[in-house]
Each structure stands twice: as structure tokens, then as C-alpha cells.
User: Fold this.
Amino acid sequence: MDAETIADLLAGFGPVRVKRMFGGLGVFADGLMLALVVDDTLYFKADLPLAERLAADGSLPFTYDRAGRRVELGYWSAPEAALDDPEALAEIARAALAVARRAPAKPKGSPPGRRLPTNC
Assistant:
């Protein structure tokens, strides 16, 4: 998935900026990261209520292994059905941006991500 594809998918949401990072792509709006793309999968920033909603639609959390531990960053994949429904995808993007706006600012140099409870 490239920047043009992401912009097309999120056209109903509005303009986004796509930047290479972490071996994938970061998706930004209003200067905040609301999504990432890793291995051609679009993941949205989620708090517990949004994560639960996305999980109910078949989404999975973005995870990776580091030092023998499974790390979850609080990003959830876009539901397959939403990828074919521009308004549904725009709604998820708006919710993800709202999550990003509520997230506390991190000091420069602090480690990325935060963990969501494992019960979501």
C-alpha cells in the first residue's frame, strides 16, 4: 500500500500526510498520527472503546515481538468491509483522530506507543 492508495482510501475523511517510518508508513492529519501501514495493512489508532468496536468487526491489533515479548501499540486494523465503504472508513479515521487528539503529548525521546489492556 502506497501513499496514493492511502489518500484514495481516506478521501472521504479528508487530506492526510503519509510519511515513511518504523519500516512502514505513518498516516497524519492535523499534525497527529492517526494510522499506520505495515505489510500492506492499515491500522488505526484506538482507545479501548474504539478497539472494542473494531474487534467486533473482525479487526486485529498491530503487534510485534521485541526482546522476546509481544508488544501492542494501540493500533487496530481496518475492518475488511470498511475498506470497500469510504464513509465507514472515514468514520473510523475520524474516531482515530479523536483518539490521537485526546492522547497525552509525549516528551521527545520517549519510547513510542502504549499498551491497551489485553481484554479488548
Remarks:
- Residues 114-120 have pLDDT under 50 and may be disordered.
- Residues 86-102 form the longest helix (17 residues).
- The longest strand covers residues 69-77.
- Strands lie at 17-21, 24-29, 32-38, 41-45, 61-66, 69-77.
